[in-house]
Write a structure and sequence with these properties.
Immunoglobulin-like, 5 domains, about 5% helix
Length: about 400
């Protein structure tokens, strides 16, 4: 009986010691750090913060962290202690990658890396490193409303942010159509990121893509053509308007051989392309298309427009006698119809006298409408040249006083 009483007395004494020891604050309660979060992320380094363990004094614990490539921490690649209680920097990581990290603490009397030590570990979180920097970023094409950009080489990216005109769009694609607004900046700002499951994004170095432009997919016939024609010297100027870095024209005789038309100019609706020494008395067809110049210096073209037509008729002689007007001209190529019109004023209403065959080389006017021509009166003559497909942009005008 005395031995039993002694054992009970000793157990009571040990219990009092344990309670006293814990009550002194020298032993930490077994809670875990909370609020673990990633605060920065570069290509090889991340930083972490967490909330300090509550109801403890900092001198009683030692914080530490573990980094693994898997959520179960079977492949731990780094383990260490931070320089600051609730802040750690982890480096020598791979760019564009996802890792798992958890933090914890041990009692001040033990080492974090000590084998068999009891670590009070937090729940793990995902951390991410920034993707590689872009290897290429370009303006590659356009249409009537957008400019197409591409950005490649950001290995490990899970998404991209494209900013233009103070508006940011998130996309998973490595090409993007930037909606261009007249008067807005012609550049786009692009950055790649890798995002963790808890929403943190680690960004690579952003890039700017310049000289963006829309492209008029098809120039309408109203927006290109001859801007000046000097038929006496056989010199012609062409202009066009639309979106792009420039435009080109091509043309040829409608029928038979002759000097071809080709050239490049600015989309400014003025005389930006000069063509001379064309084959006279020959109907030409010509068309235009706009283009943009990419970052690589390549031209991306729109569609060819419909054809327009013109001819340098090489003059028309007219004479008047016995109350009539006689017209004479050289034979024309590629012309299917010649319309002869007459008016009593230059800007007045013209009346059609006759639709002639394109093979005709002369015509005599006897009447203005249903009335005979008046001697001593000035008349205005217009000759309009047509093909089966369209009408020439150039027509012949002359004035005659009837004799």
């Amino acid at each position: 009986m005395n031995n039993v009483a002694k054992i009970i007395k000793n157990m009571f004494f040990l219990f009092v010691m344990v309670v006293t020891f814990y009550g002194s604050g020298l032993v930490v309660q077994a809670d875990t750090p909370t609020g673990l979060r990633q605060t920065t992320g570069s290509k090889d380094t991340v930083s972490l913060e967490w909330n300090n363990v509550t109801d403890t004094t900092m001198k009683n614990i030692c914080y530490g962290y573990e980094v693994a490539t898997d959520q179960t921490f079977t492949n731990i690649i780094d383990s260490g202690t931070p320089d600051i209680f609730n802040y750690a920097v982890i480096d020598k990581l791979q760019s564009g990658s996802t890792y798992f990290v958890r933090v914890g603490y041990v009692n001040y009397s033990r080492e974090w890396k000590e084998e068999g030590v009891n670590r009070h570990l937090s729940a793990p979180i995902e951390i991410v490193t920034a993707p590689d920097n872009f290897k290429s970023y370009k303006f590659v094409g356009a249409n009537d409303t957008t400019a197409t950009i591409s950005y490649e080489g950001a290995t490990g990216a899970t998404g991209y942010e494209v900013t233009h005109n103070d508006q940011t769009t998130v996309t998973n694609e490595t090409t993007y159509n930037v909606l261009l607004v007249d008067g807005a900046l012609n550049k786009a700002h692009v950055v790649a990121y890798r995002e963790s499951s808890n929403g943190y994004k680690a960004y690579n170095n952003a890039v700017d893509i310049y000289n963006l432009s829309k492209l008029t997919t098809t120039i309408s016939k109203d927006n290109f053509g001859l801007s000046a024609a000097y038929t006496n010297t056989n010199v012609f100027y062409f202009g066009a308007k639309g979106y792009g870095n420039g435009f080109e024209i091509e043309g040829r005789p409608v029928k038979g051989k002759g000097t071809a038309i080709s050239g490049n100019g600015k989309l400014d609706n003025v005389s930006s392309i000069r063509i001379d020494n064309l084959t006279k008395a020959t109907m030409y067809c010509f068309r235009a298309r706009a283009y943009v110049v990419t970052t690589d210096g390549q031209k991306v073209y729109g569609n060819w427009s419909d054809y327009r037509y013109f001819i340098n008729p090489n003059g028309c002689k007219n004479t008047s006698k016995k109350g009539s007007i006689h017209l004479k001209w050289k034979k024309l190529k590629g012309v299917s119809k010649i319309k002869i019109q007459i008016s009593t004023s230059e800007k007045g209403k013209y009346k059609t006298c006759k639709n002639l065959s394109g093979k005709s080389t002369s015509y005599t006017i006897l009447k203005y409408g249903k009335k005979s021509l008046k001697k001593g009166k000035k008349y205005y003559i217009k000759m309009i040249y047509q093909t089966k497909e369209g009408i020439s942009d150039i027509y012949t005008t002359s004035t005659v006083i009837v004799r």
